[in-house]
Every structure is written in C-alpha cells, then in structure tokens.
Amino acid sequence: MTTLPFPIAEEPDPQALEQGRLLFAGETEFVKGVVAMSGLPDPDRMEVCFAGRSNVGKSSLINALTGMKALARASNTPGRTQEINFFTAGESHYLVDLPGYGYANAPVAVVEKWQRLLKKYLSGRQTLRRAFVLIDARHGVKKVDDEILSLLDSAAVTFQVVLTKADKVKEKERARILDQVRAALSKHPAAYPEIVVTSSEKGWGIPTLRAIIATLE
C-alpha cells in the first residue's frame, strides 16, 4: 500500500520550540474586528490566520496558543461572529481569527457578504504567510471544509491542517480520520505537507504549532 503524504508534524528542534515559546510569552492583545477591507490594520507584520467550521474549537486553540483563556471568545451561537478579528502576538505577528463557517442559521445575504470579504482578504493580504485550517478529529474533512480549501487553492494561500479535539478520539479512530484527511488534502495544491494534531484541553501539539508560527519566513 502506498503511504499517503501529509505526515504528522514532528516535534520541532529545541531552538524552534524556544522561538515559539518566546513569541507567545509576549503580550497578546486584541487589535480590532474588521467587516470590510478598508478596516484592515496596516500590513506591517507577518500574519497567520485560523479558519474552521463552527464548533471546531478555534477559540479554544487560539486561547491555548496564547495562554489567555478569554482572548478569543467562543460565541454561544455558532456563526454569530462575522468579523475578521486581529490579535497581536509579540512585536512581530498578527494572529487572524476568521469567522466560523458552515453554520446553518445565518441569513444567506450575511453568508455571501462574509464570503466576499474572506475571498478579498485571502487573495489580497500580502503579509499573510499561512492559513491554518482546523479540522475536528472526530469528523474529518467535510464538504464545507473542502469549499474553504478550494478557496485557499484559488487564492494561492498555503494552508496547513490542524486537527483539533484529538483527545476526544480513540487512537484507532484517529488513524482512520487521518487517512480520510490525507486523501482529501491530496486534491489541494495549496496544502502544506504536514498535519498538526492538537488538543487544546490537554495541550497536545500546542508547542509544535507555536514553533511553526514563530519560524515562518
């Protein structure tokens, strides 16, 4: 059987781990929520963005990365937050929290407006170095995820999949989901060839993800 690409990211070397620790040991602050391209902050630092369907654990992941429990607030109503939220990480990075997608209750006009803004942001932000697409380890890649992956392909934005809630899945089931995710990613030219497996609750993969962000060029 041919081994599929997209291995799990190995633990970074000590220097990269320390770079990641230092980046996120600095002050992290909410800058602003943006609803139009005109509102974007100046592109004066490196950016990474986080995308994922509603309830994938995006707020929990951002809070785990920064060590700040209430930095990114999870809405009680999935899909309520329609802004692109910018946070600083140290003096050098923006962390960009994209609105959750795949929610059923938002009006069509609202969804279309958000999709237009998202496309403009992804294709027009020169300081954006990587998108992290969060996939729930219990469910794998769904159709709505494929839509965002195709959007990232067309915007020529490198994206890396981060499996969330890995602690909620038994090891055998996790292996099956990983195979499904790898098969889905093989269709997307913009996919970065490593998967990060995380649990915000247990802290799994958080130092690795910090190091990846800190060492992007």
Automatic annotation (TrEMBL):
MF-aspect GO terms: GTP binding; metal ion binding
CDD domains: YihA_EngB
EngB-type G domain boundaries: 44-217
Cofactor(s) recorded in Swiss-Prot or TrEMBL: Mg(2+)
GO cellular component: cytosol
Gene3D superfamilies the UniProt entry points to: P-loop containing nucleotide triphosphate hydrolases
Keyword terms: Cell cycle, Cell division, GTP-binding, Magnesium, Metal-binding, Nucleotide-binding, Septation
Gene Ontology BP terms: division septum assembly
Function: Necessary for normal cell division and for the maintenance of normal septation.
Record family assignment: Belongs to the TRAFAC class TrmE-Era-EngA-EngB-Septin-like GTPase superfamily. EngB GTPase family.
Protein name, per record: Probable GTP-binding protein EngB
